[in-house]
Design a protein that fits this description.
It contains two helices and six strands, in the order αβββαβββ. The chain is of the alpha+beta class. It has a domain of about 70 residues. The model has no long low-confidence stretch (mean pLDDT about 85). This is DUF3892 domain-containing protein.
């Protein structure tokens, strides 16, 4: 089957619309991280949620793995789990760029 560029654009736009609907539903009921605490080396060591809860790193990892935190991912690198913001291209909501508490 041969597709032209318009078909590719149309198919991709359908995909984007489906993803937007899915993303809106999946974040309901999840807490958003709004601030971070760093150590002297600049490493993230704690997180504050929009409800005011302060989470140590391990608790935040566990809650992210359980799907309780919005807009964060857990990935395995350097033989350990690491918490990071979802790669959405918006620098302002990266965990490193959030306000400190």
């Amino acid at each position: 089957m041969v597709n032209n560029n318009q078909d590719f654009e149309k198919i991709y736009e359908q995909y984007r619309n489906e993803v937007k609907i899915f993303e809106g539903n999946i974040e309901e009921g999840k807490e958003k991280i709004v601030a971070v605490r760093k150590n002297n080396d600049g490493d993230l060591i704690a997180f504050k949620t929009e409800s005011g809860r302060e989470l140590d790193y391990i608790t935040a990892l566990n809650e992210a793995k359980a799907g309780l935190l919005a807009h964060v991912d857990v990935f395995h690198k350097y033989e350990r789990d690491i918490l990071r913001s979802e790669p959405d291209g918006i620098k302002e909501n990266n965990l490193d760029n959030l306000p400190e508490f």
